Amino acid sequence: MSMVMERATTGGQDLVQHSSWLQIKEACVTLQGFQASDGRIAGTKNHSRARNALNTLTEGIADLIPHFPHDEDYLQAVVADCRAWEAAGFDVPDFYESLSLFHPERTRVDRTAHLVVFPMYTQNGSTNRFFEAVLCETIWPDFVAGLESGSYSNALFVPLRFLDYTPGYDTNSAVLFPESVAVTPRVPAGSPEGTPAALPAFTWGGIFADREAARFRSVVRHAVEITKLDLPSDAQALLDDHALSEKTFVMWDLIHDRTHMRGDLPFDPFMIKQRMPFYLYGLEELRCDLTAFREAVALLRAKKTDPLTRHHAQLVLYAVVFDRIFRFPLTGTRVRNYDSVAGQLLFAWLHQHRVLHWTDTQLTIDWDAMPDVVVALSDRINELYWRSIDRPKIVHWLAAHELISEVLAPHPASHFLSGTIPLEGTPAEITDHVHDDEFPLSMFYEALGKKLGPTIAATAGITGPVAQA
Fold first, then answer.
1. 62 in Cβ contact with 82 (< 8 Å)
2. Residue 248: which of 214, 282, 225 has the closest Cα?
3. Cα-Cα-Cα-Cα dihedral of 135, 133, 273, 432, to 10°?
4. Residues 82 and 56 sit within 8 Å (Cβ to Cβ)
5. How many CA within 13 A on the CB side of residue 77?
């Protein structure tokens, strides 16, 4: 079929109470109750009930296909993959065909709706590859489309808004990645003899900007109240207006996402399937966020930037700093929490460069000085990456630890401090010696966490209001 660049025939919000969508959700929940963690349904005693649920699921999908002409081939393939799973005795599901046909990146038109059904795990939610269903729509403001078509091209980036979902997304998960779908490597039809089996090419990645914006607004509003931080009027507007915050996160994510594969990088910046100190993941995520920050600074200072983009560029500066210094340090446990380390690092850097002050139990920020000081931290991390290609892996790890240790105090039990890291050991052995809480929370964050922690915990599963068309 041709690539339809139009909104679905019915708005996605109108389908939330549709009987077929409700039966899809119910069928997925039923199947989840029978599935093992790898997605199979072990034994045969539950097969009859699973078959009934699968029939309900596929009937619901088939009934909704006319509402998603741009996803017709994909949704028909989902039905076929469901039937193949049943025919294989409900073994480990393989949704290779349907995943290969799902291309939300080809219809990046604002409010284009998608029905997504896969056996998959949800990041920050569960590692179980259960059937999940998501009704969502694309967020694609004109100013973001202009940025993406110009200097910030990112053909894989798909910003999304939740409309409804099954329990796997009633969590902190704010992403939809093809890597999470249950597929079995195979040789594509028509490939030359000897072609090795492989996963389908991953051509998109979805980020739910509405969830990011909603939890940002909830946490930062409370943090501002606790710390008595006096905000500029545009920063306050970012917290008051969900739609404004949502669009700002789309701009931030656009630049962040593309940065993972750009710059003077180690050979594998994502460090996929490698065991290494967790703080390196924190530096990578912070590098991408600070790149978004510095690009927003550049847009603010460029004379040719249009007023709307300039406005959102300023908001990106606030969003990056506030999310990183308030929510990230206190989210999750103290076990190898790399995002927390990155947030702590930014806060301490701002404090030690006298841009951020905690005086008389009140937080103040020098807004004029903030941009250049944050960019200076970005420069330090970029220099670390630039030097990495001339260094052995272990030396790069040590240099990264040294950079962080200049700003954050390592745990007193750190093997780096005691000199007991086995530098002649394997990378895995060295990684095993990194303390689970290598860079503990400061006294500031310990105190803040007692007041802000419940608010952060309450944001699991949060979404924002859906704007009317």
1. no
2. 214
3. 100
4. no
5. 16
One-letter identity of residue 357: H
The answer to whether 315 and 409 are in contact (CB under 8 A) is no
What are 422's two structure tokens? Answer: 């086995």
pLDDT score at 2: 30
Q: Is residue 319 a contact partner of residue 290, using CB atoms and an 8 Å limit?
A: no
How far apart are alpha carbons 263 and 216 in whole angstroms?
28
Closest CA to 72 of 60, 62, 81, 83: 62
Nearest to 209 by CA among 175, 168, 170: 175
Report whether 176 contacts 202 (CB < 8 A). Answer: no
Residues of the chain under the 70 pLDDT cut: 1-11, 125, 267-274, 466-469
Total count of residues recorded for the chain? 469
- 262 backbone φψ class: left, alpha, beta (φ>0; ψ -120 to 50): beta
Please state whether the predicted TM-score (pTM) of the whole model is above 0.85: yes
Residues 6+ apart with CB under 8 A from 96: 81, 183, 184, 186, 199, 200
Which residues 6+ apart lie within 8 Å of 268 measured at CB? 274
Query: What kind and span of H or E run contains 171?
Result: none
Token code pair at residue 65: 């296909």
What is the CB neighbour count within 10 angstroms for residue 456?
Answer: 22
Closest listed residue to residue 295, CA positions, set 311, 277, 317, 265: 317
Contact at 8 Å (CB) between 204 and 158?
Answer: yes
The closest alpha carbon to 20, from 69, 75, 57, belongs to 57
Other C-beta atoms closer than 10 Å to the C-beta of 445 total: 20
389: phi then psi, degrees, rounded to nearest 5: -70, -15
Give every strand in the sheet of 126-138, ordered side by side: 113-122, 126-138, 157-165, 205-208, 175-176
Cα separation, 30 vs 344, in Å, equals 42
Q: Mutual orientation of helices 279-301 and 338-352 as an angle, nearest 10°? A: 50
The residue type at 191? S
Q: Which residues contact 248 (CB under 8 A, 6 or more apart)?
A: 213, 238, 312, 315, 316, 319
pLDDT at 265: 76
Q: Give whole-number Cα distances, 375 to 24, 290, 294, 315, 403, in Å.
A: 47, 7, 6, 16, 16
DSSP-assigned beta bridge partners for residue 63: none
Q: Which of 131, 162, 113 is nearest to 11 (CA)?
A: 113
User: What integer pLDDT is reported at residue 194 of this predicted model?
Assistant: 84
